């Protein structure tokens, strides 16, 4: 029940929400979050929650880091806005571009600034098409992504995304975007198949897709080092070496979507380092500014950029860019967020407390509702099942995930269920004691849910 003229009622009346059942929202209304502190947020009634998703996998430095607030204020006062079109630049854009190129785990040549993960991936796709034309290979435009992958919601990036809800009724994916199988070993492996055998099969399927389409038509492969929104899918043994071998064999560009994995999440600065990936392009957002302000970036190496630079000269301009791209206030906040991550060794903390999180989650493996626990660093998931042997949840997919998620909310923990996988991706400042708090709430929520299940 929402009171007339309450923020909840006004939200219902005026606000269409992303990723929300719009009809159900008319009945239940919003949960209003009012403030944040460290790994916690508070709702309008004053109830405190451990924010175990760091917002949307993104508030790496926690919810009230004064250094970021000061960086924003100082830049606002000095120069609140300027663009970078037509040879203009400003200090924060230069500093951040140089910082990102310098931090990249493989040689990257330049950074291009965008405002969201979707825009970064969309831009990557446009650059790949532009480059193919520059190289006189206009037929080489097809892009391969993966089932269960998540790359955003613009027309191009939603096409890359391999989740049904992002395509249904949107008339997506667009032509020329193909999907290959996901690295979800627990769900997709054949009975008796080892991790290596499964990875070999996935790589062979990728090669078969490339051969069937014609290798001369395939421009690039997009992938997250660890899939996030698809259910926190950590690739099995042998997966990345075998996939990368196929990409090299056919000279296909590799775009690593580091939007979630970047800036410490996996216990490495970038997810690419966790798996020895050698991408040609990397897309970055979320942890880049700890989501205090919208900003994203795309890094590209010389192999990608040299033809693009020539083509822009032939045409007269690189005809792409966003009004707010490289926004000076967002760039200043991103620089400060990276400085906090480096100075406080939050990457090391993600590795250490992440190991503790996975140790505590794996200790729950015998719980009747847990099918698998997985993750790396401070990203993890538990796969919920009602029937362990059959690896099945309830009749309706996602119902069990939603039930445990709701029980956790009652216990003061915010998580997110992707179907029946319950994800954890807390701020990188989380302590072992706070992990204990999270795991104890999870255990209680699992027990409550189990008690409610029809026998
Ligand atoms: N790529 C990945 C891996 C993501 O997780 C997301 C967002 N969840 C995006 C891209 C899209 O980012 P945005 O929502 O900022 O457009």
Automatic annotation (TrEMBL):
> How would you classify this enzyme at the top EC level?
transferase
PROSITE patterns assigned to the protein according to its UniProt record, in alphabetical order? AA_TRANSFER_CLASS_3
Task: Give an example GO biological process.
Answer: gamma-aminobutyric acid metabolic process
What Gene Ontology terms describe what this protein does at the molecular function level? adenosylmethionine-8-amino-7-oxononanoate transaminase activity; beta-alanine:pyruvate transaminase activity; pyridoxal phosphate binding
Reported EC number(s) for this entry are 2.6.1.18
InterPro entries referenced in this protein's UniProt entry, alphabetically = Aminotrans_3, Aminotrans_3_PPA_site, PyrdxlP-dep_Trfase, PyrdxlP-dep_Trfase_major, PyrdxlP-dep_Trfase_small
Carries keyword Cytoplasm? no
Pfam families cross-referenced by the UniProt entry: Aminotran_3
Q: Which keywords are on file for this protein?
A: Aminotransferase, Pyridoxal phosphate, Transferase
**Cofactor(s) needed by this chain:** pyridoxal 5'-phosphate
* UniProt similarity note: Belongs to the class-III pyridoxal-phosphate-dependent aminotransferase family.
Q: What is this protein called?
A: Aminotransferase
């Amino acid at each position: 029940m929402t009171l007339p003229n309450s923020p909840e009622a006004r939200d219902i009346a005026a606000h269409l929400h992303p990723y929300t059942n719009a009809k159900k929202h008319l009945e239940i209304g919003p949960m209003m979050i009012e403030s944040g502190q460290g790994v916690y947020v508070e709702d309008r009634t004053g109830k405190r929650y451990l924010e175990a998703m760091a917002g949307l996998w993104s508030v790496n430095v926690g919810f009230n880091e004064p250094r970021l607030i000061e960086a924003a204020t100082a830049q606002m006062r000095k120069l609140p806005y300027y663009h970078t079109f037509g040879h203009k630049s400003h200090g924060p854009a230069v500093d951040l571009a140089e910082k990102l190129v310098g931090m990249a785990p493989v040689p990257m040549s330049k950074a291009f600034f965008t405002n969201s993960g979707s825009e970064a991936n969309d831009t990557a796709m446009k650059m790949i098409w532009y480059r193919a034309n520059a190289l006189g290979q206009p037929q080489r435009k097809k892009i391969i992504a993966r089932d269960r992958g998540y790359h955003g919601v613009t027309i191009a990036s939603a096409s890359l995304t391999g989740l049904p809800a992002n395509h249904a009724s949107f008339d997506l994916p667009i032509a020329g975007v193909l999907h290959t199988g996901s690295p979800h070993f627990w769900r997709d492996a054949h009975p008796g198949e080892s991790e290596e055998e499964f990875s070999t099969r996935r790589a062979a399927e990728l090669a078969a897709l490339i051969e069937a389409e014609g290798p001369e038509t395939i421009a690039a492969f997009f992938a997250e080092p660890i899939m996030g929104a698809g259910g926190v899918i950590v690739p099995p043994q042998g997966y990345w070496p075998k996939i990368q071998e196929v990409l090299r064999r056919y000279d296909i560009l590799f775009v690593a979507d580091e939007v979630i994995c970047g800036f410490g999440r996996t216990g490495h600065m970038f997810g690419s380092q966790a798996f020895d990936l050698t991408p040609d392009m990397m897309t970055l957002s979320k942890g880049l500014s700890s989501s205090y302000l919208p900003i994203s970036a795309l890094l590209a190496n010389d192999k990608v950029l040299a033809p693009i630079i020539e083509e822009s000269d032939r045409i007269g301009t690189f005809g792409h860019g966003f009004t707010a791209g490289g926004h000076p206030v967002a760039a200043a906040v991103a620089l400060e967020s990276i400085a906090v991550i480096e100075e406080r060794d939050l990457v090391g903390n993600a590795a250490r407390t992440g190991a503790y999180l996975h140790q505590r989650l794996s200790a729950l493996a015998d719980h009747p509702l847990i099918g698998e626990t997985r993750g790396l660093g401070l990203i993890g998931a538990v796969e919920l099942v009602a029937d362990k042997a059959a690896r099945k949840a309830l009749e309706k997919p996602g119902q069990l995930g939603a039930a445990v998620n709701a029980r956790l909310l009652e216990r003061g923990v915010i998580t997110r269920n992707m179907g029946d996988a319950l994800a954890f991706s807390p701020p990188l400042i989380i302590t072992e004691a706070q992990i204990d708090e999270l795991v104890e709430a999870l255990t209680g929520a699992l027990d409550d849910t189990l008690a409610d299940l029809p026998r």
